[in-house]
Amino acid sequence: MALIVQKFGGTSVADIDRIKAVARRVKVEVDAGNRVVVVVSAMAGVTNQLVAHTRAVAALHDAREYDTVVSSGEQVSVGLLAIALQELGVPARSWLGWQIPIRSDGAHGKARIESIETAELARRLATGQVPVVAGFQALGPDNRVTTLGRGGSDTSAVALAAALRADRCDIFTDVDGVYTSDPRIVAKARKLDRITYEEMLEMASLGAKVLMTRSVELAMKYRVPLQVRTSFADAPGTLVVDEEGIVEHALVSGIAYSRDEARITLVGVADRPGVAAGLFGPLAENSINVDMIVQNVSHDGTKTDLTFTVGRADLDRAVALLETLRGEIGYARLLTDDKVAKVSVVGVGMRSHAGVAQRMFKTLAEKGINILVISTSEIKVSVLIAEEYTELAVRALHAAYGLDAP
Ligand code: ADP
Ligand code: ASP
Ligand code: MG
Fold it and tell me: 244-263: string of b/e by CB count within 10 Å (b at 16+)?
């Protein structure tokens, strides 16, 4: 008998027939004698709609109320799945984040889970009940509902698996595993049987939305056996494993992209100590993550240009904040561009091989794609390009590193 956490994403619970199909899949594990905790997302499209509603009321709005609105999608799907399970004779009960509770910090809209009270869930599991837990939501320090950031149900599932010391955490989605690149835009992408936590973490943080970054971080930290698989067939998916679990390393294991970036350039910034701190400090204090940064060399020793990227969803807030800092930092102009994308090449094999970045730059040059910003780490190279070239760049790089399926 094993304890299994099964997470079903939005497309897996998109309509009533699919919810019934999910219930049948859960029942298979229950009938096999396993204890099962189910985590579900909102029905496909619902969260996007709710986010759009909050923006339509006010572009810049109270993050607490954003959470009140966008967390509601999961309340519907847990209730429906619990009913579907009961219809099949499986004793099931829905749980919202606050009822467990899953506690988080107070960073509304992108909260981090801090603790999970497992006693009551464990007691119910022992009696054969199936808890159906709302993903994406938690209870903040002020006793208000928080949400964990887009894609956060993955994190709810892994955090529950870690807290309950589950034997397995299965992430059911609309693709049958993790691919060398997003199969929606690269027809020749190949499914990986295994990927290391580290590479998966890098792929996720660079835009591969198949798993939320934070969920991979938690799986890696607590060594949760994680599998990504399709909810539409009974097929093995991709196992996320330790490095020892992989016999042969490819130089590059995947190409990721993200359209969630926006570029900000401050023109004519004073070239003196403390400017970067005065700028990036307040952004961080306001939970605005800065990703890529380039500072131009100052020609006259007094002024320089500073370019960096933030999440597109944070752009309005970042600009509003930078305008209030204008007096302190002193800059001539603020330029923004949200029609950019970040394309990245990922692979642990890069540690021991030179020339990976060079091949990337050459491939993009051959396609006439201009690179706006570059950033690198031990196992990845990222470039910022105009958004319109995203598909072209991703496909060309996929071919250039020999990842295309035969
Ligand atoms: P869910 O609603 O089940 O959480 P998501 O839409 O969040 O599903 O994640 C699944 C999607 O992730 C796939 O449909 C696919 O387009 C996208 N994706 C991006 N990169 C990859 C990748 N490397 N491998 C597999 N899927 C990827
Ligand atoms: N429903 C939330 C979202 O769309 C959480 C999730 O699907 O993981 O972001
Ligand atoms: Mg998802």
Answer: eebeebbbbbbbbbbebbbb
Secondary structure of residue 171 in the 3-state scheme? strand
- For domain 255-400, give the CATH number: 3.30.2130.10
One DSSP character per residue, 252-318 reads: --EEEEES-EEEEEEEEEE-STTHHHHHHHHHHHTT--EEEEEEPPPSSSSEEEEEEEEEGGGHHHH
pLDDT digits 0-9 by tens, 179-207: 999 999 999 999 999 999 999 999 999 99
Instruction: Give the confidence band of 247 by pLDDT, cuts at 50, 70, 90.
Output: low
Domain residue extents for the chain? 3-174, 255-400
Q: How do residues 105-161 score in pLDDT, each as one tens digit?
A: 999 999 999 999 999 999 999 999 999 999 999 999 999 999 999 999 999 999 999
Residues having CB within 6 Å of any atom of ligand 2: 9-10, 41-42, 47, 73, 135-136, 150-154
CATH 3.40.50.20 for domain 3-174: no
At 371-396, the pLDDT tens digits run 999 999 999 999 999 999 999 999 99
Which residue CA neighbors atom 6 of ligand 2 most closely? 151
Q: Do domains 3-174 and 255-400 have the same CATH topology?
A: no
Q: Is 73 in the pocket of ligand 1 (CB under 6 A)?
A: no
